[in-house]
Amino acid sequence: MDNLIIAGTTYSSRLLVGTGKYKDFNETRLAVEASGAQIVTVAIRRTNIGQDASQPSLLDALPPSRYTYLPNTAGCYTADDAVRTLRLARELLDGHDLVKLEVLGDPKSLYPNVIETIKAAETLIKEGFKVMVYTSDDPIIAKQLEDMGCVAIMPLASLIGSGMGILNPWNLQIIINQSQVPVIVDAGVGTASDAAIAMEVGCAGVLMNTAIAGAQQPILMASAMNLAVQAGRSAFLAGRMPKKIYTASPSSPTTGVIGS
Fold first, then answer.
1. In degrees rounded to 5, what are phi and psi of residue 148?
2. Annotated catalytic, 21?
3. Which among 23, 100, 130, 243 is annotated as catalytic?
4. How far is CA 119 from each of CA 7, 71, 83, 140, 151, rounded to the nearest angstrom?
5. What percent of the chain has pLDDT over 70?
6. Mean pLDDT taken over the chain
7. pLDDT tens-digit series, residues 122-145
8. How is residue 131 annotated by DSSP?
9. What is the largest CA-CA distance in the chain?
10. Using CA of residue 63, residue 64, residue 70, residue 75, what is the dihedral sign?
């Protein structure tokens, strides 16, 4: 069976989904169920997973016994803030060590600050975290993060929440070709075709939030993304036909036909 393996753990779904921007935890639950995702990422600074015992907790809507939680550092702009946030997540989730690191450069573009990202990754890896890392689509930085010990590289397709799809497939292809760990597109996916394209070029998976939560019908879009990721992966494994410029090739036999 064609499974996704991250840090030694096997997952049947290659779609990872965020849990923010929904109208309530019930809609979050329904969308995640429709997506078929097994890994859900949660912004520790924005979502209650036990920080406030008096408020509803995401853990009740999406029980950790059913889903793998991926705490993330959304909203962090320095390495120190990111490390502090994930230490808190480990305490809240009883020693959970699989995390998503993202250190942003500015609040407008949300583009990754790779200098602070590398700094934070070094500290987290030394402390025993299994780091999945959000980064730019720079192949050199991606390789450096892998060599440091990150368990998955997560280059952006385009800016977070932009819905612009994959803007630089060539850099993404370089990162995929050179990587020995899963490459998971993170940020910028807008619709099902974006997810399918990411999988067709060889990504191990796709992570998204706004593309689902920001749709007019989030639950229906979650289902569409589930199918798109599966279709894209199947197309990648099947191997597409070569592209031919100005060369027609009939789809029906040209010999042994009536009248020949």
1. -70, -25
2. no
3. 100
4. 21, 18, 10, 16, 16
5. 93
6. 91
7. 999 999 999 999 999 999 999 999
8. E
9. 82
10. positive
